[in-house]
């Protein structure tokens, strides 16, 4: 089902997800976490080797920002590794017999479709507000909603939306993650670009109570990531590593969902190609990111 040599449009990605579901029916189940303004499904792929829904869970979402194409490509890479590795790769098998994975491969499908059809560098969703289009879904969570690093102008790329959780995409992430309850052990939201592995918070320079532990695990993840292809990542809290940004999903995951390991990743590169990362880099990006994520999962206490 998978093809990591090219980027795929939304319909192709959904066909790939259907394909992996029919190829691995004992591992894969799909559910719809929400429906967008333009009527598209927001899909989650649950990967489980057993346990009847009782196991701890890892949440990974990709593509909350439409133009960051290597992000959904990396969620597809992860799904491929999990399904092809179960029963053949010892590390993956052990991990999958311990954790369920819930993967939202295209969190913002309206925006993603728009980057294919109209504007390659579109970021937000496509809901119309006051003559412009789109809320930045990563400013729409209730983590200091409307605070630093957000805009109340619907024409801005960082428009926070009319109210916290006003958007179908943020409702979908919220509801799917909360449905996991205390089983959710790690939350990873995948962006590009800049090569960062970031912990809360984005809404303030204060650090989470367990910052030392999240930082320790991030360091292990980045070492494993760098070991694959030598790619350098900077790690630390969002506000210091990148900038103040309120209403983000990983701050919400830590503060409100109570997930103790909440990471926002910025994948390749550092700006040479930026959002237009060549498809030849999908595989190495997937390889190193997956190595980092596996190391992080195995380093959790
Ligand atoms: O600005 C963003 O939303 C992210 N950077 S991006 O270039 N991919 O748009 C950073 C997200 C930081 N996370 C939180 N603020 N929670
Ligand atoms: Zn982003």
From TrEMBL:
Keyword entries, A-Z: Carboxypeptidase, Disulfide bond, Hydrolase, Metal-binding, Metalloprotease, Protease, Signal, Zinc
Family in the record: Belongs to the peptidase M14 family.
Residues of the active site: 266
The keyword Protease is annotated on this UniProt entry: yes
Ranges where the Peptidase M14 domain occurs: 6-300
Any one of the GO CC terms: extracellular space
Gene Ontology molecular function, alphabetical: metallocarboxypeptidase activity; zinc ion binding
GO biological process assignments: proteolysis
Location of this fragment in the whole protein: 110 to 410 of 410
Cofactors demanded by this protein: Zn(2+)
Name of this protein: Zinc carboxypeptidase A 1
């Amino acid at each position: 089902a998978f093809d990591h040599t090219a980027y795929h449009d939304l319909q192709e990605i959904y066909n790939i997800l259907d394909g992996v579901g029919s190829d691995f029916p004992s591992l894969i189940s799909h559910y719809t976490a929400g429906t967008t303004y333009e009527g598209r499904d927001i899909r989650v792929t649950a990967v489980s080797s057993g346990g009847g829904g009782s196991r701890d869970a890892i949440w990974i979402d990709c593509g909350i920002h439409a133009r960051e194409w290597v992000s959904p490509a990396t969620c597809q890479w992860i799904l491929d590794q999990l399904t092809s590795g179960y029963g053949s790769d010892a590390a993956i098998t052990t991990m999958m017999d311990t954790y369920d994975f819930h993967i939202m491969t295209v969190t913002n499908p309206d925006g993603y479709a728009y980057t294919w059809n109209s504007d390659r560098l579109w970021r937000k969703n496509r809901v119309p507000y006051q003559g412009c289009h789109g809320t930045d879904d990563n400013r729409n969570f209730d983590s200091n909603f409307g605070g630093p690093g957000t805009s109340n102008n619907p024409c801005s790329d960082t428009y926070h939306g009319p109210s916290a959780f006003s958007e179908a995409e943020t409702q979908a992430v919220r509801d799917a993650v909360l449905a996991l309850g205390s089983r959710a052990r790690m939350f990873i939201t995948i962006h590009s670009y800049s090569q960062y592995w970031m912990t809360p918070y984005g809404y303030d320079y204060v650090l989470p109570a367990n910052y030392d532990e999240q930082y320790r695990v991030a360091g292990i993840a980045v070492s494993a990531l760098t070991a694959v292809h030598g790619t350098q990542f900077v790690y630390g809290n969002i506000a210091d590593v990148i900038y103040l940004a309120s209403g983000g999903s990983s701050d919400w995951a830590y503060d409100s969902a109570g997930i103790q390991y909440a990471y926002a990743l910025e994948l390749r590169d550092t700006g040479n190609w930026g959002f237009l990362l060549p498809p030849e880099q999908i595989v190495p990006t997937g390889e190193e990111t997956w190595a980092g994520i596996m190391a992080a999962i195995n380093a959790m206490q």
